[in-house]
Amino acid sequence: MSDRGVGASIARKEDDRFLMGTGEFTPDVQLPGMWHAAFNRAQIAHGRLVSVKAPSGAEGQVFTSADMADIKPIRSTASFPGFKGADFPVLARDKVRYAGEQVAIAVAPTRAEAEDIADSIEVEYEELPAVVDMNDGREPSAALVHDHWADNVCCETQFENGDLEPARAAAVHTIHRRFRMARQTPFPMEGRGTLAHYDSRLDELVVWMSHQLPHPMQRGIAHFLGLEINNVRVICPDVGGGFGLKTHLDGETMAVCWTSLKLGRPIKWIQDRLEHLTCDADCRNHQYTMTAYTDEIGKILGMEVECVVDAGAYSPWPWPIGVEAATGVGNLQGPYTVDALKGRSVTVCTNKPPSQPFRGVARPGACFTDELTMDAIARTVGREPWDVRLDNLVPPAAMPYDTVTRKHLDSGDYPEAFRRCVAAIDPESVRERQKTPEPDGRLIGVGFACFYEQTAYGTGPFGYSAWGIELVPGMEMATVKLTPDGGLWASVGIQCHGQGLETTLAQVAASELGIDPERIAIRHGDTATAYAGTGTYASRSIVVAGGAVAQGCRELKPRLARIGAHLLQCDEADVAVENAEVRGPGGSVTFDEIAEAFYHHPENLPDDTDRGGLTVATGYNDKVHGGVFGFGAHGAVVAVDPDTGQVEILDYAIVDDCGTRVNPLVVKGQVIGGYAQGIGNALYEESDYDENGQPLSVTLADYHVPAAPMVPDIKYDYMESPSPYTTMGIKGVGESGAIGPVGAIGNAVNDALKGLGVEIAETPITPRRVFDAIERGRAR
Amino acid sequence: MTSTTISVNGRTVTADVEPRLSLADFLREHEGLTGTHTACEHGVCGACTIMLDDRPARSCITLAVAAHGAEVRTVEGYDGDETMATIRESFKKAHAVQCGYCTPGMLATAYDIVTRLPDADRDRIRLELAGNLCRCTGYIGIVDAIEMTLAEIRGGS
Ligand code: FES
Ligand code: FES
């Protein structure tokens, strides 16, 4: 067993190239004869396209949707009752439905020239009233985003489990609140980008994409362009962050692929920040209505909830809008023992960019809602919120526990993790401090949030497959091979864009075979090297690809044992495969020697050598199909300036449990990275619009991404409750950190404001929103 | 086209460029030095930070013609530099890198902090880093790495 295997905090294998500046991102790839693309984009949020005219002199360098009529209609499927479909246009057709929607592609030898041409394309619109707010969009008088729909509601889902009547009847308190989250962008530091070229030797369209899902993109590009899978290769090289943004087939990519084939030359499009902030303002825009019924001490008896999601204009393939809202409702009870829940989700189309998953999907919204409700309950019953939480958390004795929304929580000691978080924050000392006014007049507050993280989601039973989505995860494949010099090579269908999987998957293999991670190469992000896979999203890769790599190593072992035993001239039953060697009663042979025999001296092999050789293609399939569950508890202490509305985080604690930690350094990095994004969600990030649907947050002066001074140090602790269902008990951890901050910070702010009798119920908690709440309190 | 002469990592380069060409694009497209990344191209995020006459500068809002006569040092230009070697080692130890996209700009700023502010504490490091956005790490590992480097340099001298 390698001491650099699972559990070791080794430095990442991928770091060297990034530190030397020799990583290779899509924008870095240069091909001979390559041209650049730029897009002409809609200047208005909603309108009919009357005409699109290329500037003279740019003949053959500008293309519109009319030129691309041979691309098959792109339409996401879903089986939600009443789900309304609409084609996702590669380039706007007939109508534009959000400001920034791509209308035409322009190509030229340099990007600057392509931008010049794109800017001089003349587009005539007949402007229509824009649907800017999701609630307005539900009014009968609202303009229609899709003319062939009767209204703008794309779908509604209902959920009911447990009997709400007794809960209502027994309730001592009924707590009713409405919460809202602003729209924002995922903001990876590298935006989207695509380079396509046709390789005539291989008869293959090679697509370099800054993306998280190589194989699904290969399938989509091939299908919609009418090509065979054999004729499309997708390479996702180094990718500068994804966070869910890079999980759909974007119109720009399709247009770039089409134009490259049309012109027979490599075409590259690299999204700039203006395009990202304009076109990718695609997430978190939810509204929740919550009614919680509790007994006299705040134990929740039942909930009635509604989640409305502003889905923007389209469903991008393969994710149908509707998933977001259903996910919101499906997690609203949080990690608590709630017996009855009745929920409704409503997905509304508006004239904004199409909604996309972003780290945590709807879970930050659900956390904001259930955690702020929890504190509202505590204030109502006159108890401390940490005491009320402890009474409601799923106890360890109840594990595995099926939540009212049918999440199978597999393991963990939630109350203990939460108690550790409370101890780290020491809220009693905050209560002491609150008794005396602060010298600077600021108001101090303390808040907590508890949540589970659903990771490594499989086929269902209450998700992807049941929702009728085209992309159903579940079976994850790996190819594992002992190389001729005794190293290990493994290829996987996931994509690593910062998670350290080149290291952690090597650690998994190292634990299985004893080969040092330095001698293990992990290949990912390329349909030509990986057999199959659905990519990296939803905190799945270390669980499923880790499971597949481990399985591959396990299937290699008997093959190594047979050859090794033959070389040792002993019985196969008497050998052990470990520490990169096969050990028998009288000695051992190294994997290097076994590889040497297999690849170069077959005369030394036993006659019954496994014909599969030293390569295994195998897979991992979840024992449970609804994912495995991590847990997190966050605590925050804040100071609120009543004169400016400014919120400062004074203290922050996180206790996280993601089961077996493959590399504790990487786990902590994931949690902290998520925490920083959660701070952005809670306090800073907002993609705002005017009443005509014009985006107002399109530079970094208007859209505030947390910088280092806005992300304070944390007190960090962990627990390790291995999942009973996964290889080595691993759970995912990618989204965890991003879920809690809205809840903990929101509660801390409300605790600070409680003397004024007001609450914040909308993110981001900007100085203006805080100040308005304080003014409301003072006016009472 | 305008002629510009720039010392890039110690090598003198003369080129005819369009006056509107940014130094970042010049380095990336003309010189093939793709270690310099751009992420906002309006001077806020710091991803494109390079050393211009030994001071950190945003190459996305510096024109190549304006760098005429200057000495430019990019992430590719630190061979044999012990301070940068220590910073890089600390970045690895402290897990200050995730996707790696902000990293070259972070290293330039880290180099500036380490050489200019030998006594910087965590608050000061954070303040100095305010012009470099990272979406992955939450900065704590980066602050750790710079602190670690400063401690190492202090211990070694
Ligand atoms: S790319 Fe230069 S500061 Fe952002
Ligand atoms: S490591 Fe990804 S942006 Fe900093």
Distance between the termini of chain B: 49 Å
Any ligands, ions or cofactors bound here, and which? Answer: FE2/S2 (inorganic) cluster
Uncertain spans of chain A: none
Biggest sheet of chain B, in brief? 5 strands, mixed
What is the level-2 CATH architecture name of the largest domain in chain B?
A: Roll
Let me know the CATH homologous superfamily of the largest domain in chain B.
Beta-grasp domain
Integer average pLDDT of chain B: 97
State the CATH superfamily name of the largest domain in chain A: Aldehyde oxidase/xanthine dehydrogenase, molybdopterin binding domain
CATH class of the largest domain in chain B: Alpha Beta
Query: Which fold name corresponds to the CATH topology of the largest domain in chain A?
Result: Aldehyde Oxidoreductase, domain 4
Which strand order do you get reading across the main beta sheet of chain B?
2-1-5-3-4
Estimate nothing, just give the exact number of structural domains of chain A.
3
Count, helices of chain B: 5
Tally of helical segments of chain A: 19
The CATH topology of the largest domain in chain B: Ubiquitin-like (UB roll)
Largest sheet of chain A: 7 strands, mixed
- Shape of chain B from CA axes? globular
The helix content of chain A, as a percent range, equals: 25-40%
* Sheet/helix structural class of chain A: alpha+beta
Order of helices and strands of chain B: EEHEEEHHHH
